[in-house]
Protein backbone atom coordinates (compact mmCIF):
# COMPACT_ATOMS: atom_id res chain seq x y z
CA UNK A 1 0.00 0.00 0.00
CA UNK A 2 1.36 3.41 -0.98
CA UNK A 3 1.06 6.51 1.18
CA UNK A 4 0.26 8.34 -2.05
CA UNK A 5 -2.77 6.19 -2.86
CA UNK A 6 -6.44 6.97 -2.49
CA UNK A 7 -6.90 3.74 -0.52
CA UNK A 8 -4.39 4.83 2.11
CA UNK A 9 -5.42 8.49 2.31
CA UNK A 10 -9.20 8.07 2.31
CA UNK A 11 -9.71 4.61 3.81
CA UNK A 12 -6.81 3.07 5.73
CA UNK A 13 -5.50 6.17 7.52
CA UNK A 14 -8.89 7.57 8.67
CA UNK A 15 -9.95 4.16 10.04
CA UNK A 16 -6.66 3.68 11.91
CA UNK A 17 -6.79 7.24 13.32
CA UNK A 18 -10.40 6.83 14.45
CA UNK A 19 -9.61 3.60 16.27
CA UNK A 20 -6.33 4.93 17.72
CA UNK A 21 -7.76 8.16 19.15
CA UNK A 22 -10.86 6.59 20.67
CA UNK A 23 -9.36 3.63 22.55
CA UNK A 24 -7.68 3.63 25.94
CA UNK A 25 -3.97 4.53 25.92
CA UNK A 26 -2.92 1.01 26.88
CA UNK A 27 -4.56 -0.31 23.70
CA UNK A 28 -3.05 2.20 21.27
CA UNK A 29 0.11 0.15 20.66
CA UNK A 30 -2.02 -2.85 19.70
CA UNK A 31 -3.99 -0.73 17.23
CA UNK A 32 -0.75 0.41 15.58
CA UNK A 33 0.64 -3.14 15.57
CA UNK A 34 -2.46 -4.53 13.85
CA UNK A 35 -2.41 -1.59 11.41
CA UNK A 36 1.25 -2.30 10.60
CA UNK A 37 0.53 -5.97 9.92
CA UNK A 38 -2.42 -5.14 7.64
CA UNK A 39 -0.45 -2.38 5.90
CA UNK A 40 2.47 -4.72 5.15
CA UNK A 41 0.32 -7.69 4.16
CA UNK A 42 -1.88 -5.58 1.86
CA UNK A 43 0.21 -6.18 -1.26
CA UNK A 44 1.67 -9.64 -0.62
CA UNK A 45 0.53 -11.47 2.55
CA UNK A 46 3.09 -14.28 2.17
CA UNK A 47 5.98 -11.92 2.98
CA UNK A 48 4.49 -11.27 6.40
CA UNK A 49 5.98 -14.56 7.60
CA UNK A 50 9.51 -13.26 6.93
CA UNK A 51 8.92 -10.16 9.02
CA UNK A 52 7.41 -12.25 11.84
CA UNK A 53 10.48 -14.53 11.69
CA UNK A 54 12.71 -11.43 12.03
CA UNK A 55 10.75 -10.33 15.10
CA UNK A 56 11.01 -13.76 16.75
CA UNK A 57 14.72 -14.19 16.03
CA UNK A 58 15.63 -10.80 17.47
CA UNK A 59 13.28 -11.10 20.43
CA UNK A 60 14.81 -14.44 21.44
CA UNK A 61 18.38 -13.39 20.63
CA UNK A 62 18.22 -10.10 22.55
CA UNK A 63 16.62 -11.68 25.62
CA UNK A 64 19.22 -14.45 25.77
CA UNK A 65 21.98 -11.84 25.39
CA UNK A 66 20.58 -9.70 28.21
CA UNK A 67 20.27 -12.69 30.56
CA UNK A 68 23.75 -14.05 29.93
CA UNK A 69 26.61 -12.86 32.16
CA UNK A 70 29.29 -14.66 30.17
CA UNK A 71 31.00 -12.20 27.81
CA UNK A 72 31.98 -14.87 25.30
CA UNK A 73 28.53 -16.40 25.34
CA UNK A 74 26.91 -12.99 24.79
CA UNK A 75 29.21 -12.34 21.84
CA UNK A 76 28.35 -15.61 20.15
CA UNK A 77 24.64 -15.02 20.71
CA UNK A 78 25.01 -11.61 19.07
CA UNK A 79 26.90 -13.06 16.11
CA UNK A 80 24.29 -15.81 15.68
CA UNK A 81 21.43 -13.29 15.71
CA UNK A 82 23.18 -10.95 13.27
CA UNK A 83 23.98 -13.85 10.93
CA UNK A 84 20.34 -14.96 11.05
CA UNK A 85 19.18 -11.43 10.15
CA UNK A 86 21.76 -10.98 7.40
CA UNK A 87 21.20 -14.52 6.15
CA UNK A 88 17.53 -13.80 5.47
CA UNK A 89 18.43 -10.47 3.86
CA UNK A 90 21.15 -12.10 1.74
CA UNK A 91 18.88 -14.86 0.48
CA UNK A 92 16.02 -12.64 -0.57
CA UNK A 93 18.06 -9.69 -1.83
CA UNK A 94 21.39 -11.05 -3.08
CA UNK A 95 20.91 -14.72 -3.97
CA UNK A 96 19.93 -14.02 -7.59
CA UNK A 97 22.85 -11.61 -8.01
CA UNK A 98 25.35 -14.11 -6.61
CA UNK A 99 24.06 -17.01 -8.70
CA UNK A 100 24.01 -14.98 -11.93
CA UNK A 101 27.58 -13.77 -11.38
CA UNK A 102 28.86 -17.27 -10.60
CA UNK A 103 27.33 -18.46 -13.88
CA UNK A 104 28.91 -15.54 -15.77
CA UNK A 105 32.39 -15.63 -14.20
CA UNK A 106 32.87 -19.39 -14.19
CA UNK A 107 30.81 -20.10 -17.30
CA UNK A 108 28.66 -22.34 -15.13
CA UNK A 109 25.09 -23.39 -15.61
CA UNK A 110 23.71 -23.30 -12.10
CA UNK A 111 19.94 -23.45 -12.35
CA UNK A 112 18.13 -21.64 -9.60
CA UNK A 113 14.68 -20.37 -8.75
CA UNK A 114 14.62 -16.59 -8.93
CA UNK A 115 13.87 -15.20 -5.49
CA UNK A 116 11.46 -12.25 -5.20
CA UNK A 117 12.59 -9.65 -2.64
CA UNK A 118 10.01 -8.69 0.02
CA UNK A 119 9.22 -4.98 0.16
CA UNK A 120 11.10 -3.05 2.82
CA UNK A 121 13.28 -5.96 3.96
CA UNK A 122 16.44 -3.80 4.03
CA UNK A 123 14.77 -1.23 6.27
CA UNK A 124 13.23 -3.50 8.88
CA UNK A 125 16.28 -5.80 8.94
CA UNK A 126 18.53 -2.85 9.77
CA UNK A 127 16.09 -1.76 12.49
CA UNK A 128 16.19 -5.26 13.97
CA UNK A 129 19.99 -5.24 13.87
CA UNK A 130 20.13 -1.89 15.66
CA UNK A 131 17.92 -3.32 18.43
CA UNK A 132 19.95 -6.44 19.13
CA UNK A 133 23.27 -4.54 18.94
CA UNK A 134 21.94 -1.87 21.33
CA UNK A 135 20.99 -4.62 23.79
CA UNK A 136 24.42 -6.24 23.50
CA UNK A 137 26.16 -2.91 24.11
CA UNK A 138 23.98 -2.18 27.11
CA UNK A 139 22.55 0.95 25.48
CA UNK A 140 19.02 -0.29 26.07
CA UNK A 141 17.39 -3.14 28.02
CA UNK A 142 15.93 -6.06 26.11
CA UNK A 143 12.23 -5.66 25.37
CA UNK A 144 10.38 -8.35 27.37
CA UNK A 145 7.06 -7.63 25.66
CA UNK A 146 7.20 -9.21 22.22
CA UNK A 147 4.26 -7.09 21.06
CA UNK A 148 6.19 -3.88 21.72
CA UNK A 149 9.21 -5.20 19.83
CA UNK A 150 6.90 -6.20 16.98
CA UNK A 151 5.47 -2.68 16.99
CA UNK A 152 8.98 -1.21 16.68
CA UNK A 153 9.82 -3.38 13.67
CA UNK A 154 6.49 -3.11 11.85
CA UNK A 155 5.37 0.42 12.74
CA UNK A 156 3.69 1.26 9.44
CA UNK A 157 4.74 4.93 8.97
CA UNK A 158 8.38 3.93 8.38
CA UNK A 159 8.05 0.19 7.74
CA UNK A 160 8.80 -0.18 4.07
CA UNK A 161 10.86 2.85 3.03
CA UNK A 162 12.27 4.36 6.19
CA UNK A 163 13.58 6.43 7.73
CA UNK A 164 15.56 3.73 9.55
CA UNK A 165 14.56 4.28 13.18
CA UNK A 166 17.13 3.00 15.67
CA UNK A 167 15.67 1.30 18.70
CA UNK A 168 17.31 3.55 21.28
CA UNK A 169 15.72 6.58 19.60
CA UNK A 170 12.13 5.37 20.13
CA UNK A 171 12.32 2.88 23.02
CA UNK A 172 10.85 5.34 25.53
CA UNK A 173 8.19 6.48 23.06
CA UNK A 174 6.98 2.91 22.57
CA UNK A 175 6.49 2.66 26.34
CA UNK A 176 4.85 6.08 26.77
CA UNK A 177 4.04 9.02 24.52
CA UNK A 178 1.58 11.88 24.44
CA UNK A 179 -0.71 12.69 21.55
CA UNK A 180 -1.48 16.41 21.47
CA UNK A 181 -3.38 18.69 19.13
CA UNK A 182 -0.14 20.43 18.11
CA UNK A 183 1.55 17.11 17.26
CA UNK A 184 -1.42 15.96 15.20
CA UNK A 185 -1.68 19.30 13.38
CA UNK A 186 2.05 19.31 12.65
CA UNK A 187 1.88 15.70 11.47
CA UNK A 188 -0.97 16.42 9.05
CA UNK A 189 0.87 19.42 7.60
CA UNK A 190 4.13 17.48 7.28
CA UNK A 191 2.28 14.62 5.57
CA UNK A 192 0.73 17.02 3.05
CA UNK A 193 4.14 18.54 2.26
CA UNK A 194 5.60 15.08 1.67
CA UNK A 195 2.63 14.01 -0.44
CA UNK A 196 2.95 17.15 -2.59
CA UNK A 197 6.70 16.65 -3.08
CA UNK A 198 6.11 13.05 -4.09
CA UNK A 199 3.10 13.47 -6.37
CA UNK A 200 3.54 16.95 -7.87
CA UNK A 201 7.33 17.05 -8.29
CA UNK A 202 8.80 13.53 -8.13
CA UNK A 203 6.15 11.87 -10.29
CA UNK A 204 6.16 14.67 -12.86
CA UNK A 205 9.95 14.71 -13.27
CA UNK A 206 10.11 10.93 -13.02
CA UNK A 207 8.09 10.72 -16.21
CA UNK A 208 10.70 12.93 -17.92
CA UNK A 209 13.58 10.76 -16.71
CA UNK A 210 11.82 7.54 -17.74
CA UNK A 211 11.25 8.80 -21.29
CA UNK A 212 14.97 9.53 -21.69
CA UNK A 213 16.63 6.66 -19.81
CA UNK A 214 14.67 4.07 -21.77
CA UNK A 215 16.29 5.17 -25.05
CA UNK A 216 19.61 4.06 -26.57
CA UNK A 217 22.14 6.85 -25.96
CA UNK A 218 22.61 7.36 -29.72
CA UNK A 219 19.03 8.62 -29.97
CA UNK A 220 19.39 11.79 -27.86
CA UNK A 221 21.91 14.59 -27.54
CA UNK A 222 23.96 15.93 -24.64
CA UNK A 223 21.40 18.50 -23.53
CA UNK A 224 18.69 15.83 -23.41
CA UNK A 225 21.05 13.60 -21.43
CA UNK A 226 21.56 16.37 -18.87
CA UNK A 227 17.80 16.97 -18.66
CA UNK A 228 17.27 13.27 -17.96
CA UNK A 229 20.03 13.17 -15.32
CA UNK A 230 18.79 16.30 -13.53
CA UNK A 231 15.15 15.14 -13.74
CA UNK A 232 16.10 11.83 -12.14
CA UNK A 233 18.20 13.58 -9.47
CA UNK A 234 15.16 15.61 -8.47
CA UNK A 235 12.79 12.66 -8.80
CA UNK A 236 14.88 10.56 -6.44
CA UNK A 237 15.24 13.35 -3.89
CA UNK A 238 11.58 14.38 -3.83
CA UNK A 239 10.37 10.78 -4.00
CA UNK A 240 12.40 9.68 -0.99
CA UNK A 241 12.36 12.90 1.03
CA UNK A 242 8.64 13.16 0.33
CA UNK A 243 8.14 9.66 1.70
CA UNK A 244 10.26 10.55 4.74
CA UNK A 245 8.17 13.69 5.32
CA UNK A 246 5.01 11.61 5.18
CA UNK A 247 6.49 9.02 7.57
CA UNK A 248 7.63 11.70 10.04
CA UNK A 249 4.22 13.37 9.78
CA UNK A 250 2.36 10.11 10.41
CA UNK A 251 4.63 9.38 13.34
CA UNK A 252 3.78 12.78 14.84
CA UNK A 253 0.06 12.11 14.43
CA UNK A 254 0.45 9.00 16.60
CA UNK A 255 2.73 10.70 19.12
CA UNK A 256 6.13 9.55 17.82
CA UNK A 257 9.06 11.83 17.02
CA UNK A 258 11.24 10.39 14.25
CA UNK A 259 14.58 11.97 13.45
CA UNK A 260 14.96 13.93 10.22
CA UNK A 261 16.14 11.99 7.18
CA UNK A 262 17.03 14.83 4.78
CA UNK A 263 18.47 18.30 5.30
CA UNK A 264 18.65 20.00 1.90
CA UNK A 265 21.43 17.74 0.53
CA UNK A 266 21.61 19.48 -2.85
CA UNK A 267 23.07 22.64 -1.31
CA UNK A 268 26.15 20.67 -0.18
CA UNK A 269 29.67 21.78 -1.10
CA UNK A 270 31.26 18.37 -0.68
CA UNK A 271 30.28 14.73 -0.81
CA UNK A 272 31.19 14.52 2.87
CA UNK A 273 28.58 17.20 3.58
CA UNK A 274 26.17 15.57 1.15
CA UNK A 275 26.15 12.38 3.23
CA UNK A 276 25.50 14.35 6.39
CA UNK A 277 22.37 15.70 4.71
CA UNK A 278 21.22 12.79 2.49
CA UNK A 279 19.42 9.71 3.91
CA UNK A 280 20.65 10.67 7.37
CA UNK A 281 19.13 7.61 9.03
CA UNK A 282 21.16 5.26 6.81
CA UNK A 283 24.43 7.18 7.05
CA UNK A 284 24.17 7.42 10.86
CA UNK A 285 23.28 3.71 11.02
CA UNK A 286 26.44 2.79 9.12
CA UNK A 287 28.45 5.21 11.23
CA UNK A 288 27.22 3.76 14.54
CA UNK A 289 27.14 0.08 13.65
CA UNK A 290 29.88 -0.35 11.03
CA UNK A 291 32.27 2.61 10.68
CA UNK A 292 32.97 3.17 14.40
CA UNK A 293 33.28 -0.57 15.21
CA UNK A 294 35.84 -0.83 12.36
CA UNK A 295 37.87 1.87 14.09
CA UNK A 296 36.39 4.94 12.41
CA UNK A 297 38.94 7.74 12.20
CA UNK A 298 40.75 6.67 15.36
CA UNK A 299 43.20 4.64 13.30
CA UNK A 300 46.10 5.40 10.96
CA UNK A 301 45.19 7.17 7.72
CA UNK A 302 45.36 4.20 5.36
CA UNK A 303 43.16 2.14 7.68
CA UNK A 304 40.68 4.99 7.93
CA UNK A 305 40.47 5.05 4.13
CA UNK A 306 39.88 1.29 4.13
CA UNK A 307 37.09 1.76 6.67
CA UNK A 308 35.44 4.40 4.46
CA UNK A 309 35.82 2.13 1.43
CA UNK A 310 34.09 -0.72 3.29
CA UNK A 311 31.26 1.54 4.50
CA UNK A 312 30.49 2.86 1.02
CA UNK A 313 30.79 -0.58 -0.53
CA UNK A 314 28.17 -1.68 2.02
CA UNK A 315 26.11 1.44 1.25
CA UNK A 316 26.05 0.54 -2.45
CA UNK A 317 25.16 -3.09 -1.73
CA UNK A 318 22.42 -2.04 0.68
CA UNK A 319 20.72 -0.14 -2.12
CA UNK A 320 20.62 -3.06 -4.50
CA UNK A 321 22.08 -6.31 -5.74
CA UNK A 322 23.58 -4.98 -8.97
CA UNK A 323 26.98 -3.76 -10.09
CA UNK A 324 25.74 -0.25 -10.80
CA UNK A 325 24.80 0.17 -7.11
CA UNK A 326 28.21 -1.14 -6.05
CA UNK A 327 29.99 1.30 -8.38
CA UNK A 328 27.71 4.10 -7.19
CA UNK A 329 28.64 3.41 -3.57
CA UNK A 330 32.36 3.24 -4.35
CA UNK A 331 32.08 6.42 -6.44
CA UNK A 332 30.89 8.31 -3.37
CA UNK A 333 33.43 6.58 -1.16
CA UNK A 334 36.31 7.62 -3.41
CA UNK A 335 35.21 11.26 -3.29
CA UNK A 336 35.03 11.18 0.50
CA UNK A 337 38.50 9.60 0.70
CA UNK A 338 39.76 12.30 -1.71
CA UNK A 339 38.25 15.04 0.48
CA UNK A 340 39.75 13.57 3.65
CA UNK A 341 43.17 13.23 2.01
CA UNK A 342 43.26 16.75 0.50
CA UNK A 343 41.05 18.77 2.83
CA UNK A 344 39.31 20.17 -0.28
CA UNK A 345 35.97 20.42 1.51
CA UNK A 346 37.48 22.57 4.28
CA UNK A 347 38.88 25.30 2.04
CA UNK A 348 37.15 28.67 2.43
CA UNK A 349 36.35 31.65 0.23
CA UNK A 350 33.43 32.71 -1.96
CA UNK A 351 34.94 31.56 -5.25
CA UNK A 352 36.22 28.34 -3.69
CA UNK A 353 32.76 27.78 -2.22
CA UNK A 354 31.20 28.19 -5.67
CA UNK A 355 33.67 25.70 -7.17
CA UNK A 356 33.02 23.27 -4.31
CA UNK A 357 29.28 23.43 -4.95
CA UNK A 358 29.71 22.83 -8.70
CA UNK A 359 32.09 19.94 -7.99
CA UNK A 360 29.60 18.39 -5.56
CA UNK A 361 26.66 18.73 -7.99
CA UNK A 362 28.63 17.10 -10.79
CA UNK A 363 29.70 14.27 -8.48
CA UNK A 364 26.24 13.35 -7.24
CA UNK A 365 24.41 13.88 -10.56
CA UNK A 366 26.88 11.59 -12.36
CA UNK A 367 26.47 9.17 -9.46
CA UNK A 368 22.69 9.21 -9.91
CA UNK A 369 23.14 8.18 -13.54
CA UNK A 370 24.88 5.02 -12.30
CA UNK A 371 22.08 4.59 -9.77
CA UNK A 372 19.34 4.92 -12.41
CA UNK A 373 20.90 2.95 -15.27
CA UNK A 374 20.01 -0.70 -15.77
CA UNK A 375 23.69 -1.61 -15.97
CA UNK A 376 27.12 0.00 -15.88
CA UNK A 377 27.61 -0.28 -19.63
CA UNK A 378 24.57 1.94 -20.26
CA UNK A 379 25.58 4.26 -17.40
CA UNK A 380 29.05 4.77 -18.90
CA UNK A 381 27.63 5.50 -22.37
CA UNK A 382 25.07 7.88 -20.86
CA UNK A 383 27.76 9.81 -18.95
CA UNK A 384 29.89 10.04 -22.09
CA UNK A 385 26.84 11.44 -23.91
CA UNK A 386 26.40 14.09 -21.20
CA UNK A 387 29.88 15.37 -22.03
CA UNK A 388 29.52 15.17 -25.83
CA UNK A 389 31.55 12.01 -26.31
CA UNK A 390 28.89 10.05 -28.23
CA UNK A 391 28.19 10.42 -31.95
CA UNK A 392 24.44 10.83 -32.09
CA UNK A 393 23.44 9.73 -35.60
CA UNK A 394 19.94 8.56 -34.74
CA UNK A 395 18.46 11.55 -32.89
CA UNK A 396 14.72 11.57 -33.55
CA UNK A 397 13.57 14.38 -31.24
CA UNK A 398 15.24 17.43 -29.71
CA UNK A 399 15.27 18.11 -25.98
CA UNK A 400 12.05 20.15 -26.14
CA UNK A 401 10.12 16.97 -27.00
CA UNK A 402 10.79 15.52 -23.54
CA UNK A 403 9.45 18.39 -21.43
CA UNK A 404 6.13 20.22 -21.54
CA UNK A 405 4.88 23.26 -19.63
CA UNK A 406 3.83 21.26 -16.57
CA UNK A 407 7.23 19.61 -16.40
CA UNK A 408 9.00 22.97 -16.72
CA UNK A 409 6.95 24.22 -13.74
CA UNK A 410 7.96 21.07 -11.82
CA UNK A 411 11.63 21.75 -12.61
CA UNK A 412 11.32 25.31 -11.31
CA UNK A 413 9.56 24.12 -8.15
CA UNK A 414 12.22 21.44 -7.67
CA UNK A 415 15.04 23.99 -7.84
CA UNK A 416 13.29 26.39 -5.44
CA UNK A 417 12.34 23.72 -2.87
CA UNK A 418 15.85 22.21 -2.90
CA UNK A 419 17.15 25.23 -0.95
CA UNK A 420 16.05 26.17 2.60
CA UNK A 421 13.82 29.12 1.64
CA UNK A 422 10.80 27.53 3.31
CA UNK A 423 12.53 25.55 6.06
CA UNK A 424 10.53 27.33 8.80
CA UNK A 425 7.20 26.97 7.03
CA UNK A 426 5.63 24.87 9.81
CA UNK A 427 7.25 26.74 12.69
CA UNK A 428 5.60 30.15 12.25
CA UNK A 429 4.70 31.59 15.70
CA UNK A 430 1.01 31.82 16.61
CA UNK A 431 1.14 35.62 16.75
CA UNK A 432 1.51 35.73 12.95
CA UNK A 433 -2.07 34.59 12.41
CA UNK A 434 -2.43 35.85 8.84
CA UNK A 435 0.75 34.13 7.64
CA UNK A 436 -0.23 30.90 9.41
CA UNK A 437 -3.66 31.08 7.77
CA UNK A 438 -2.13 31.59 4.33
CA UNK A 439 0.16 28.59 4.89
CA UNK A 440 -2.83 26.47 5.93
CA UNK A 441 -4.77 27.54 2.83
CA UNK A 442 -1.76 26.73 0.66
CA UNK A 443 -1.50 23.28 2.27
CA UNK A 444 -5.19 22.56 1.64
CA UNK A 445 -4.79 23.56 -2.01
CA UNK A 446 -1.64 21.42 -2.29
CA UNK A 447 -3.44 18.43 -0.76
CA UNK A 448 -6.43 18.73 -3.08
CA UNK A 449 -4.15 19.17 -6.11
CA UNK A 450 -2.00 16.18 -5.15
CA UNK A 451 -4.98 13.89 -4.59
CA UNK A 452 -6.51 14.99 -7.89
CA UNK A 453 -3.23 14.09 -9.60
CA UNK A 454 -3.31 10.68 -7.91
CA UNK A 455 -6.88 10.07 -9.05
CA UNK A 456 -6.08 11.08 -12.63
CA UNK A 457 -2.77 9.25 -13.08
CA UNK A 458 -1.58 5.65 -13.02
CA UNK A 459 2.10 6.68 -12.70
CA UNK A 460 2.86 6.57 -8.98
CA UNK A 461 6.01 4.57 -8.18
CA UNK A 462 8.03 4.69 -4.97
CA UNK A 463 11.68 4.23 -5.91
CA UNK A 464 12.92 3.14 -2.48
CA UNK A 465 10.38 0.31 -2.19
CA UNK A 466 12.80 -1.90 -4.13
CA UNK A 467 15.51 -1.44 -1.52
- What gross morphology would you assign? globular
Class per helix and strand makeup? mainly alpha
**What Rg is obtained from the alpha carbons, in whole angstroms?**
23 Å
Order of helices and strands: HHHHHHHHHHHHHHHHH
Main β sheet profile:
none
N/C terminus separation = 16 Å
| Mean pLDDT rating | 90
Strand content: under 5%
Summed up, the domain count is: 2
H/I helix tally: 17
Number of strands: 0
Secondary structure: helix percent: 55-70%
* Poorly predicted segments: none
Characterise the protein shown here.
There is one protein chain. Helix 3 runs antiparallel to helix 4 and helix 4 packs antiparallel against helix 5. Helices cover 68% and strands 0% of the residues. It is globular, with a radius of gyration of 23 Å. It has helices at residues 6-21, 25-41, 48-67, 71-105, 121-137, 146-153, 167-175, 181-213, 222-253, 271-277, 280-291, 301-319, 323-342, 350-372, 376-386, 405-417, 433-456. The protein is mainly alpha-helical and 467 residues long. 39% of the residues are buried. The chain has 17 helices and no strands. It has two domains: 29-176, no CATH class; 183-466, no CATH class.
Amino acid sequence: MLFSSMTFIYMFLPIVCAMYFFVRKELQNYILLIAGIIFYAWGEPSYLAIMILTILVNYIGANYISRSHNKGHRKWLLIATILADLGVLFYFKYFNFMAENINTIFNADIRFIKVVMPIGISFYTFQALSYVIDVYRGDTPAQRDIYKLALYICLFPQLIAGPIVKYHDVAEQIEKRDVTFDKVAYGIKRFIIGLSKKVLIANTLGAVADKIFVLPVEQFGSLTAWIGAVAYSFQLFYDFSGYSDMAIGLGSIFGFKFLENFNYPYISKSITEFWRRWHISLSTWFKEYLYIPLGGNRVVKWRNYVNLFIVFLATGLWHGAAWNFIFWGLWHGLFIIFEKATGWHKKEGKFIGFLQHIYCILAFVIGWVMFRADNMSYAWQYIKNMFGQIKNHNIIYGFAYYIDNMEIIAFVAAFICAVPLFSKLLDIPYKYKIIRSLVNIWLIVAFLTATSFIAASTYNPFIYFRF
